[in-house]
Amino acid sequence: MQQDPHANFLARLTFPEPTRELSIEVDLVAEMAILNPFDFFLAETAEQFPFEYDAGERSELAPYLVRTRSGSLFRLPRLDSAGAAPSISWSI
Questions:
Q1: Is residue 72 in a domain?
Q2: Into how many domains does the chain fold?
Q3: Residue 58 forms part of a structural domain
């Protein structure tokens, strides 16, 4: 078992010899719990908008952020049900 940088658990199998068949049986137990989605601490750096991300956060969030001509960061819009993003326009 391994854990990726986002804390997901991964099972990695290696096969030293060629094989003709692979059979995997999965058993799952899910814990159901009621969680308060607002039970978190807000980082001091996020208390005032606009705020800046540190280098590590910018790297991880890069696919979801776009930098405007003025240099500010905006979130990209969510994709619609067909997988297309609406157009983005702004003026300076």
A1: yes
A2: 1
A3: yes
Which pairs count as long-range contacts for 50-53, CB under 8 Å and 24+ apart, including other chains? Answer: none
Q: How far from chain centre, in Å, is Cα 54?
A: 16
Residue 61 forms part of a structural domain: yes
Dump pLDDT digits (tens) for 54-87. 888 888 887 777 666 665 555 555 555 565 555 5
- pLDDT of 3-35, one tens digit each? 888 888 888 888 889 888 888 888 889 888 888
Whether the CB-CB separation of 10 and 3 falls below 8 Å is answered with: yes
- Residue in this structure with the two tokens 């692979």, named with its chain if needed: 22
Res 91 pLDDT > 50: no
Torsion angle of C-alpha atoms 29, 34, 37, 38, degrees rounded to 10? -140
For residue 67, what are the contacts with CB-CB under 8 A and spacing of at least 6? 73
Domain membership of residue 69 as a residue range = 43-79
Q: Is residue 5 part of a domain?
A: no
Query: For the whole model, what pTM was predicted?
Result: 0.30
